[in-house]
Amino acid sequence: MQRVPVPPGARRGDEGVMEESASAVLGSDGLFSKAIEGFKPRQPQMEMADAVAEAIEKRSVLVAEAGTGTGKTYAYLVPALLSGERVIVSTGTKNLQDQLYHRDLPAVRKLLGRGGSIALLKGRSNYLCLHRLELTEDQGRFYSRREATKFTKIRRWAYQTENGDIGEMSGVEESDLLWPRVTSTTDNCLGQECEEWDNCHVVNARRRAQEADLVVVNHHLFFADMALKEEGFGELLPGANAIIFDEAHQLAETATSFFGERISHRQFTELADDTVAEHLTDAPDHKPLEGGADALKKAVADLRLALGGPGQQDFGRYPWLQVVHHKGVESAIDTVRESLELLIKELKQVAERGKGLQGCKERGEALLDQLIRLTGTAPEGQIHWVDLHKIGFVIHHTPLEIRDTFQQAMEGRSCSWIFTSATLTVDEKFDHFLREFGIEEATTAHWDSPFDFQQQALFFHPKGLPQPNAPTYGEQMMEQVLPIIEASQGRTFLLFTSHKALRAAAEFLRERDVEFPLLVQGESARSQLLDQFRELGNAVLLGASSFWEGVDVRGDALSCVVIDKFPFASPGDPVLQARIQALSSAGRNAFMELQLPRAVIALRQGAGRLIRDVEDRGVFVICDSRLLKKQYGHTFLNSLPNMARTRDVSEVKAFFAKTV
User: Fold this and answer.
1) Residue 645: partners with Cβ closer than 8 Å, 6 or more residues away
2) Cα distance between residue 444 and residue 638, in whole Å
3) pLDDT, tens digit, for every residue of 398-429?
């Protein structure tokens, strides 16, 4: 793809003196080359740095795709820090957020000798809540001795931590069910009425962010702020002169969830639990509170059972109209509403006894309004659906499109908007990304990966496989994949588009007594599986969606990536289904505009797991026979790195023979 040239040049600093351009800092005679042993200047990185600098200076929009190995992190951090402007950097994951703040930013600031103040800001559920910590301790209701021990560790850490970021706490996993009891939500936060307001970790983190020159957030937090979901939290964005989105290919999905509305079983059960906790503290004599809380929890559990309906799966995403007519759903909704109204009535009688009880009353009233809205008719332009979990549910109103809302946000802020990722284009075009966000005026730029894919990688597409919907497809595919795993001596990612296919493949490999260690998603935590994969050096990892991106395994441990099918989203998904219908009704091609582009981006992410370094070598396998049998298969092929290609398994074996 043709690159958009951005001429390097000097710029004027805050002091009125001429400074080196961003590209010069990253060039052969720049600070990085002189200070970092082994640093190699990369022309794509230098060009991207100057493109970012120009966008910041001109308050313009830049959409930049930078292939793996370009060094895009430094390419946007250097000009951001040199600009002297107030910058927000938003990432797709908390892992990258922490890496930027704790590793990359300090390194760049140290080399530049400047950069102003920086801050890290996460969502409130990532910070210890001192009020809820005390509440949980006073309540003293732990489900096991082990949980009580973990609480003691958290209590000890609470005296030591300055920031209250639960990511600092090594003794308790971030996914532990104890954390929601000692962190706050928008619903249960007491705000300025809280006695711990002056010491609040969330408040202090926001204050630091509002005062900083560069703030690192994540996409969820950014859109929570943009949508003004949290009172007093919408003050972060207005002061920004530049907003940089890394991992921008994830933006649309994140934005969609925040531009709509939802209500979950957890909001009801947390209200009930918090009511009991506050009752024990401030109104122990008012017994109806505890009974009302128990009645609400039972009503919510009964609603979940009713939503499941006869013969329906335990979990999944369904259109609201499909489940609301199940027998007993409407009466179950009425019971939840009545139970909530009774609990609010009891809370009103004791609300003046404590701020916590007052907060529970107000939460109940807000929850009642939400329940009525989200179980009624959805507003025009909103998709009404429900996500059923094994023990809970979330009811959603999701916008059909986000472009208008996002454009209003962009137009309301005079700043530069910079979007970057390794995967933004489809068939070498930015059309899908620009259309999704309604961006009409932007500079688009693409820089290929500096890796030599012709020498480092081999693309293999098996012969003779049936269509992916054939009953025997999974077994036939694994028969063809098995010799490749053996030639690679393990060291393989098998990436699946469904958990059902993943489990079947795991069973196939175990029946064949494969000599390499098998690591299967769902049998251990994702982080543990990845650590084991790196340490073992010859393992075969079977993963679904969460392993297709955000996974970085360098070196010989990962030498083969196998994709079972094109990652098309299920057409039965209620959100996708509604969008397909809307596009089709407007006379547009939903497959070409929506389904295909999203699948291509997902496939490119999966392919990106293979070559992560200049020394890496490996084989990339797509098993889906539609690659050559369907016309759209060429769109997938044209969007992949320029690897050597073969359909002869002997060439795959020869490739591995040179590397193993």
Assistant:
1) 458, 459, 460, 461
2) 19
3) 999 999 888 888 887 789 999 999 999 999 99
Tokens of 82: 């040199």
Q: Which of 188, 176, 120 is nearest to 150 (CA)?
A: 176
Nearest to 456 by CA among 565, 603, 547, 554: 554
Contact between 196 and 130 (Cβ < 8 Å): yes
| pLDDT above 90 (res 133) | yes
Q: What's this model's pTM, rounded to 2 decimal places?
A: 0.90
3-class SS of residue 35 = helix
3-state secondary structure of 382: strand
Q: What angle do CA 365, 371, 375 make, to 5 degrees?
A: 160
Residue pair 59/403 in contact by the 8 Å Cβ criterion:
no
For 320, the enclosing helix (H) or strand (E) is helix 320-323
Picking from 115, 106, 141, 4, the residue whose alpha carbon sits closest to that of residue 65 is 4
Element (H, E) at 355: helix 355-374
Phi, psi of 429, deg, nearest 5: -125, 145
What are phi and psi for residue 492, nearest 5 degrees?
A: -130, 140
Using DSSP's 3-state secondary structure scheme, residue 227 falls into coil
The pLDDT, as a whole number, for residue 660 is 61
**Which one, of 562, 542, 565, 595, lies nearest residue 466 by Cα?**
565
Going by their DSSP bridges, the two strands 457-460 and 618-622 should be labelled as: parallel
Question: How far apart (Å, rounded) are the C-alpha atoms in residues 150 and 179?
Answer: 10
Residue type, 136: T
Cβ atoms of residues 387 and 394 within 8 Å: yes
